[in-house]
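Q: What does the predicted 3D structure of asparagine synthase (glutamine-hydrolyzing) look like?
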Amino acid sequence: MSAIYGIIHKNGDPVSQETAHTMATAMRHRAIDGEGSWHEGHVVLGQCMLTFKAADKTQRIPLVTDDLVIVADIRIDNSPYIRKLTNSPKDATDIELLLAAFRTWGQHCVYYLNGEFAFCIWEREHNRLFLATDRVGFKSLYYYDTPDVFIFCTEQKGLLAAKPLPHYFNEESLITYHFRDGDPVATHTKYVYALLGGYGLTLEDRCIRQVRYWNPSPGKYSFDDGEECAWEMRKLLTTVVKNRISTDRPIGITLSGGLDSSSIACLLAKELAAVNKPLYAFSSVLPETAQGKDERAYIERILQHCPNIIPTFVDAAAFGPFDDISDAFNHDETFPNPFFYMDHAILRAAKEKGVGVLFTGYGGDHWVSWQGHTVIYNMLTAGRYQLVYQLIMEFAEQEQRHPFQIVKRELAAQTSIYRALRGRRRKSLNGTALRKGFIRKYRQMIDLRPVTDVFETMMDNVMSGRVGQLPAMLSNRNEAYGIISAVPLLDRTVLEYMMDVPDQMFVYNGHKRSLIRHAMEGIVPDEVLWRKDKGKYSPDFMARSLAGISRADAITQSPEYALAFEKYLSKPAMSHLAAGTELSTIRLIQGIICSKVISILQKNGYLFEGNFS
C-alpha cells in the first residue's frame, strides 16, 4: 500500500523546497517500493509506495493529469463493479479506478468504493482539496489546519516534521490510553487530528469542511434461523479473506490458537492451498526453558489440520514490557500497549520470512465472537420469557447441568446485588498510575459502565470512529516493517452483517461465542472450535514483568521522568500497583510507558500545560 502526505499554503505563499524536502525525508522509511512527489507553487503532494501486487510498481506516483493530482493508499474490493460503471480498462490499477470514479461521481465516489483507503485529490483548476478515508478507517490520515497552512499525512511524524513549532502535548491522550475514552479524533499532539473512518474532508477558499458519508444502519439482512445466520457469516468471512489475498507477496497470520485467529487461519490456508501457496503462521509461545502453559497444543492442532501452514514460534526471549519503549512509540505513534514487545517480535520474524501481507484475528471478540454474557439477562428484562427458558434449557442440556445452575450464571450473576455479595466491583476511576486530581478533571469524559448491549456499544464505536483506531495503527506499524496489515473481522461488510444478527445467536444451541463456532464448523478442527479455555497472547507476561518491576522505583526517582510525575502520574499509586494482581501490573507498566513517552516528547521540545500537584 502507500503512505501519503501534503502541504497546502492557504495564503498562496509558495511551499519552499526545504519544507517539501523535510517532509519527504521524514516519510522516506515508508518508500519501500518507490516514492514520488508533485510540487507546484503553494501545494506539495507526495506518496511513498509499498505495493500489494508487482504490477503496481509501474504505477506513476503521484497520478497527475491536466486537472487533477492524486495520491492514494487504496485497495478497491469491488473493482469489477467500478470498472464496469466507469468503462475503465481491465488492467486499470486501483489508483486509476479512483481517478475514473472521481471523474464520474466527483466527491460522491466514496459512496461507490468498497475496500480500504485514504486518499487525496487536488483539483488544480478549482484550487480544491478532497481527502477521504474508508468507512471503517483502516488507513490512518492526520491533519493540521491553521488560517495559513493545511498539512496532512499518513503518519504523525511526517506531519510534525512540517508543522510550525512549538508542539504542545495533549494531556487528554492519557485518559484515552487508560480508559479508552476521550475524543477519537485527538492525538497526543494538540491541534493534530485524525480524519476518522467514513469521513470526507474538503479544503476550499481557505476553509475545511468535513462530511460523514457512512451512517450505518441495520436492516440489510433478515434471518429465519440460526443455521442460515451462521452460513451467511461463513460466506462473508470467506469473501473478506479472499479480498485480501489478491497479491503476489507471501501471506502470513498471527496465530494464537484462539477461536478468532484460528478461524481466519483455516479459511486462509484453504484458499491458498487451492492455488498451491503456503501460509506463514507466527505464534507467541513460551521459551523452551520457561515454566508454564502456552497455546502450542492448539496451534499444532491447526497445523495438522492445514498442512500448507509453515509455522514460526516466537518467544521474544530477549525482550519484555520495559524494553525498547522509545522504539515502540516511534512505530505506534501512540502510547504502546504493555504487550508491544511481542507485537514487534512477531513483525521482525515475519519480515525475516519475507511476508508481505500479515493477517490478524483482532476485533473478533468485540462483536463477531462476543461471549454473550448478558444476552439472556437482557432478554429477561425485555419480557422475552419463552426464549429465555429455551436458551437456559439448551445450556443445561449441553453442559449436563441443572437449569438452576444456568440461571445463577446467566441471570443472577448479572444483577448488582449478586456482584456486591460476591465482592465484584464495577470499573472504577482508581487502579491506574494517574494522579487523582488529573483524573477528576476529565471525569465527565470517562464512561465506566460495563458493556451490556454489544449492539449499542459497537454502533457507538463505529459511529464515533473509534472502531478503526487500532486497525489504522496496525497498518502504519506493519508497513514500517514493509508488511501490509489485514484485519478481516472488522471489514465493513462484516460490521453491517453483525448489525442484523439476533442476540440469541451469541448463545445459540447452548454455547458461548456460538455464532462464530457454528459458522466455522467443518473449517476449524473441533478441538479448537469448541475449546472453553483461552490462553494469553504473551504466556509469560507476568514473569517478564516481575523480573523487570524493580525498574519502576528507579523510574519514579529519576529526574529524567520528573515532569511526568509532577503533572500526571502518582508515585504512591505506582508503588501500590507494584504489589498487586496481574491487572495492577498491567496498569503499572502503563504508568512506566507514559513516563517514558512524556520524557521522549519533552526531549523533542514539546511544551506541557497544566499542574495537578
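A (community wiki): The C-alpha cells above were generated from the sequence. Residues 152 and 564 are 29 Å apart (CA to CA). The mean pLDDT is 92.
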